[in-house]
C-alpha cells in the first residue's frame, strides 16, 4: 500500500501520459494532468498548460496546488517529434523539440521543486526514450532532447537528494500507441525483430513502472535510468 500523493503528469491527455494518469488514479492518488488541448482521463483534474512557457507552467501548478494540494510527484512526459534527416533538419526543427522536451521538463521540474523542498519529499520522473541512448536516424533533435533528461535527473539527485527528493528517468521503447499503429505493417514487423521481447509494450506497462518509482518502495532509487523496452536498448 503506497501513501496517496498529489501527482501532476504533463501531456496527460493522450498516449503514454494518459495511461500514466490512469494508473495513478487507480492507485488512489490525487491526479492532475496538463494538456495543451483536450482533457485527461476520468478522475483527473485537467489544467491547460504549455511547457514552452514558464508563466503557463507556473499558473498550472498554482491551480493544482489550490485544488489538490502541493505537487509531490511530477511526471514530465510532454513531448513532440519533428523527425527528419540531419541535412534536412532546420534549426527550428531542432530548437522546437529541445524547447518542449528538454527545456520544458526543466521548467516543470524547477516549479515543482519549490513545494518539494518545503515538504522535504518529492518524486521527479522524467519520461525519456530508448533512442536517448541508442540513437535513431532522423531523430537527432528528439534523441538529444531525451538524453538531456538524464543529465537533469542526475544533477538534481546530487542537488536535492538529501532532502527526500528522488529524480529518475524512464526510457520506454516502442509502445502500442496511435503513432506506432499508423506505421506500415512491414515496418512494425522489422522493429519487432530488433526487440528481444518480440512485441511492442502496452502504455500500461510503462505507467506501472512510473507509478512504482513514485511509491514508498522506491525511496532509495535516484539518478537511475530504467528502460521499459523489451530489451531493445540493452547496455545503452
Summarize the structure.
The protein has one domain: 3-Layer(aba) Sandwich (Rossmann fold). With 236 residues, the chain is an alpha/beta fold. It has helices at 15-26, 54-68, 91-119, 131-134, 140-160, 178-181, 185-194, 203-213; strands at 6-10, 30-35, 44-48, 73-76, 122-127, 165-172, 225-228.
Q: What is the CATH topology classification name?
A: Rossmann fold
Q: Please give the CATH class.
A: Alpha Beta
Overall domain count = 1
Q: Strand order within the widest sheet?
A: 3-2-1-4-5-6-7
- What is the structural class? alpha/beta
Number of strand segments: 7
The CATH architecture would be 3-Layer(aba) Sandwich
> What is the residue-mean pLDDT, rounded to a whole number?
96
Which oligomerization state do the chains in this entry correspond to? single chain
Radius of gyration over alpha carbons? Answer: 17 Å
Molecular shape: globular
| Number of helices in the DSSP assignment | 8
Distance between the termini: 33 Å
- Name the CATH superfamily classification: NAD(P)-binding Rossmann-like Domain
User: Which spans of ≥5 residues are poorly predicted at pLDDT below 50?
Assistant: none
Residues in β-strands, percent: 15-25%
Helix and strand sequence:
EHEEHEHEHHEHHHE
Protein name: Beta-ketoacyl-ACP reductase
InterPro entries: KR_dom (IPR057326), NAD(P)-bd_dom_sf (IPR036291), SDR (IPR050259), SDR_fam (IPR002347)
Domain Ketoreductase: 5-178
Family: Belongs to the short-chain dehydrogenases/reductases (SDR) family.
Amino acid at each position: 500500500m503506497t501513501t496517496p500523493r498529489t501527482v501532476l503528469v504533463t501531456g496527460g491527455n493522450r498516449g503514454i501520459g494518459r495511461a500514466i494518469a490512469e494508473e495513478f488514479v487507480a492507485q488512489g492518488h490525487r491526479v492532475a494532468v496538463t494538456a495543451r488541448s483536450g482533457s485527461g482521463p476520468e478522475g483527473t483534474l485537467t489544467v491547460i498548460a504549455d511547457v514552452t512557457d514558464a508563466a503557463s507552467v507556473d499558473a498550472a501548478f498554482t491551480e493544482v496546488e489550490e485544488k489538490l494540494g502541493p505537487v509531490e510527484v511530477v511526471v514530465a512526459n510532454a513531448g513532440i517529434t519533428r523527425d527528419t534527416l540531419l541535412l534536412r533538419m532546420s534549426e527550428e526543427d531542432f530548437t522546437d523539440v529541445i524547447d518542449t522536451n528538454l527545456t520544458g521538463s526543466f521548467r516543470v521540474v524547477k516549479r515543482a521543486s519549490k513545494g518539494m523542498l518545503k515538504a522535504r519529499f518529492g518524486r521527479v520522473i522524467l519520461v525519456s526514450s530508448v533512442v536517448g541512448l541508442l540513437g535513431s536516424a532522423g531523430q537527432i533533435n528528439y534523441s538529444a532532447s531525451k538524453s538531456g533528461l538524464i543529465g537533469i535527473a542526475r544533477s538534481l539527485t546530487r542537488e536535492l537528494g538529501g532532502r527526500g527528493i528522488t529524480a529518475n528517468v524512464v526510457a520506454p521503447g516502442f509502445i502500442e500507441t496511435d503513432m506506432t499503429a499508423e506505421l506500415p505493417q512491414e515496418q512494425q514487423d522489422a522493429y519487432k525483430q530488433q526487440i528481444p521481447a518480440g512485441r511492442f509494450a502496452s502504455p500500461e506497462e510503462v505507467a506501472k513502472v512510473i507509478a512504482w518509482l513514485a511509491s514508498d518502495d522506491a525511496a532509495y532509487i535516484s539518478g537511475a535510468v530504467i528502460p521499459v523496452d523489451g530489451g531493445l536498448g540493452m547496455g545503452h
